[in-house]
Amino acid sequence: MTETNSVQNGGGQVPPSGRVDVRTVAKPWGHESIWAHTDRYVGKILHIKAGQALSVQYHNAKDETIHLLTGELVYRVQMGETLEDMHLKAGESFRITPHTIHQMEAVTDCDVLEVSTPELDDVVRLSDRYGREGTNAP
After folding, report:
1. What angle do CA 55, 39, 88 make, to 5 degrees?
2. What is the dihedral sign for C-alpha 45, 47, 51, 54?
């Protein structure tokens, strides 16, 4: 260990342990708080307003698991040829692997914990009520 407490990891330096800045990203459906972002993982809390929905989307590489902290969520996930509603309640979790089409829609205000691989811009939007389809815009 060096004086800054960083450690060697496969030839590179790992930042020292300690507090991290939380970044808030405004979204048309609410906002997300990115509370962890490393080269190995990302942690977010998605704050989705009641009646709002994220894009119908998939990821090429990103692997994510969500955990509904508060609220009630319609969670549409591709099962075979159709999107099926997994309807999540507070305390329930669901994993989305790459190429799985999915969409979240808040029945009530929701806080969704998301942990994923670090590919933040890996989103393919198939449809979006806010006009963002085909982009990776916030």
Report:
1. 35
2. negative
Which of 6 and 52 is assigned the larger pLDDT? 52
Could you tell me if 16 and 29 are in contact, meaning their C-beta atoms sit under 8 angstroms apart?
no
pLDDT tens figures, 100-112 = 999 999 999 999 9
Using the predicted structure, report yes or no on whether residue 8 has a pLDDT greater than 70: no
Q: How many Cβ atoms are within 10 Å of 57's Cβ, its own excluded?
A: 21
Cβ(57)–Cβ(127) under 8 Å?
no
Domains defined along the chain, listed by start: 20-127 (2.60.120.10)
The residue whose two tokens read 């999107």 is 83
**Cα–Cα distance, 93 to 109 (Å, whole number):** 17
Distance CA 69, CA 92 (A): 8
Give the whole-angstrom CA distance, residue 66 versus residue 93.
Answer: 5
State the Cα–Cα distance between residues 53 and 23, nearest whole angstrom. 21
Q: What is the pLDDT of residues 23-47, one digit of tens each?
A: 999 999 999 999 999 999 999 999 9
